[in-house]
TrEMBL record, chain A:
Transmembrane segments: 20-39, 59-81, 102-125, 145-164, 171-188, 208-228
Keyword Transmembrane: yes
CDD domains for this protein: ABC-2_lan_permease-like (cd21809)
Protein name: ABC-2 family transporter protein
Keyword Phosphoprotein: no
Keywords annotated in UniProt: Membrane, Transmembrane, Transmembrane helix
UniProtKB/TrEMBL annotation, chain B:
Protein name from the UniProt record: ABC-2 family transporter protein
Organism of this sequence: Oceanobacillus oncorhynchi
Pfam families: ABC2_membrane_4
Family matches, as PANTHER family: INTEGRAL MEMBRANE PROTEIN-RELATED, MEMBRANE PROTEIN
UniProt keyword S-adenosyl-L-methionine, yes or no: no
TrEMBL record, chain C:
Keyword annotations from UniProtKB, A to Z: ATP-binding, Nucleotide-binding, Transport
Domain ABC transporter as annotated: residue spans: 5-232
Family label: Belongs to the ABC transporter superfamily.
Protein name: Putative ABC transporter ATP-binding protein YxlF
Gene Ontology MF terms: ATP binding; ATP hydrolysis activity
Organism: Oceanobacillus oncorhynchi
PANTHER family: ABC TRANSPORTER, ATP-BINDING PROTEIN
Amino acid sequence: MIFPLIQSDFLKIKRKGMWLLCLIGPFGVVALQMVNYGVRKDYLFEQMDDRWLYYLLNINTFTPLAIVLGIVILTSFMSSIEDETNAWKQLVALPVSKRSVYLSKFTVISCILFLSSVLLFLFVFGYGLTLGLGEDIPYLRLMEYSFLPFFAALPVLGLQLWVATISKNQAIPVTLGVIGVIFAYSAPLLPDWMIWKWPALSNDWGHAYINALLGIGFGVLLYLLGMVDFKRRDVK
Amino acid sequence: MISVISSEWYKLRKSKVLLLLLVAPLVGLFIGMSSSLGDIGAINPWYEKLVMMNFTYAVLFLPLISGVLASVICRYEHQKGGWKQLLALPVTRGKVFLSKYVLLLLLIFVMQLLYLVSIYLVGMIGGITEPFPMDIVWKTIVGGWMATFPLIALQLWVSIAFKSFAAPFAINVIFTLPTILVINSERFGPYYPWGQPFLMMNIGGSAEDFFFVPWDQILMVVGGSFLLFFIGGYLYFQRKAI
Amino acid sequence: MEYIVETKNLTKSFGKEKAVSNLEMKIPKGEIYGFLGPNGAGKTTTIRMLLGLMRPTSGSVQLFGKDMKNNRIDILKNVGSLVENPSYYPHLTAKENLEASRKILHAPKERIDEVLKLVRLHGVRNKKVKGFSLGMKQRLGIAAAMLHQPELLILDEPTNGLDPSGIIEMRELIQSLPKEYGMTVLISSHLLSEIDQMATRVGVVTKGKMIFQDSIETMRKIAQASIQIKVNDNEAAWRSMLANGQKADLGEEHINLQVEDDEQVAASIDYLVQQGFSIYRVQEETRSLENIFLEMTKEEHAE
């Protein structure tokens, strides 16, 4: 029931540059560190004994921003594809439930973001190897810093997809996204309950996976709220 | 020319663009209130607030939100053949482009003023008793505004080119994010157009010139990229098939 | 009688405004139902409720005897639709646009080529829809609506943007559907002439209310010609005719005679002459369907 919809949504995002963004996101995050380490490698090596960890921390100053902004762009793209000629009415007049229409959009964007996380893992790992950060490669941490931000960012995805699908004017979700990225950037100053802080993987307990679990929990919650609201609304 | 600008303004007046401008002081309040930098050895507590607030505001918020404004200003024309209707009026394309650009400049200036208010509010709430350093604050407000000239020229260009909000925003993000890193570099920082809002609003910058950035850098980087993006967008719009 | 579409007390309010009020639509199987009304009468809102895009404020929609509220997906499997302006994905080709719907409809892949040929877009199937003319986009929308060979086809103003030859083609296509596929068609329009040429039943809606619903023949009967007679004393003549058992109305300047054939006209005039009335004029007045439609909708506007 849901798979044809997802296939159809993947077809619709052709030629929109969304796959390119999926690549640019993780590549950009690593490229910034290439510049960083390229310019002042010696200085950065002195900052911490565990060079791998310091490298990952550097990576992770940009990952949350890239994810939050990536979510804003992808969700806005996704709904503008249907908004452009008001294809919502044609889509919802097909024999599909509105719930699955919403679930399909959520799934497609999650897939793209997850693929970005896989690419991030590969790029971070690959560039890390060339830097000579030490023999002990912290695989577990590498995985954590590549994939946990994705899970921790699911509530932001839930929120942005919701606002983007119900807004006729995409300035609203995009502005919300700009505010969100300011929050994500100010993560250390935010209280733990704010969803934009979670992709930074820091919290008072000191366990990164808590952010991921919270992310999955609240991501599902915000997804459900958005879906119920979407189902309730008339299609104009 | 004035009539084209006022018609542009008329179209925007009732939209939510004014609410959009209010986001700036709110973000200013948020950064100002949440930051607790402690003593950084500044001459007076206003400077402390200015350093903290201007950093996040100028590095990320200002460039990103100006791009959103540029898209908003083209929104009506992208809907159902609005460009056709506008350009069928007795106006030249050049005037339309210039009017949209000037209106953007005005909107961003208003936004800067609102941000100024938020700086003052943060100080008042924080109980700062020293006199408000208006001379310095003015320079950062006007300087930050001038630094957005090239950025909004580019954003206007891509906003005219793409119907969706997402595409111009993506381009904006790709150029804005690296700023965080680039401004740390003394070699590259001064030449990166997206870094200029921060450099112009950073009160720790060079104090010898009128702004916190030397005039030749303003002329070369801000002026140069402005000319490049403005002329590029202008020519693109002249040739765009409507 | 088996109704493919049946609404009961269908009402939709936007705030205080009632866009559709107590609408009772009945469409028997195999008919081409012309849904007529001026712009803004509530046609599109009704159609949106028929497709489950909008929820009725009150009342119910039944398609194929099933309630829309609980069987939306089941019902929509057998409905094809084109609502208002055609919707499409400009960055995709004609074929890809249909493919996006086909996957969801589970229609066989060959159907894409079939429907593309049906609407004469096969030659441009691999071109992006962005560059299509309005008429081509409209035809693509109809192709999408026919993909799964639905039992009910709902077309909202389908001839919008089509050129005269396109309109004729569209009419022929629509007329063939009930015969060849047993489809039932609902087609809305604000132009009576268009409906007149293909519909078998008509529903006229204005200000959200259904003011006429019957077969097109019944509507034509109302439009039939009447004979006007002017004599030296209209009122006396009229009374005399009524007394004689003839159907007639008294107008301001003449008597309107309701007659079925020429013989009756002759008989009536013969009678008037015998009664000693001086006959000044006998003329035929034809009321076009357009006039009837205007009259029907005008009365409502006057309220």
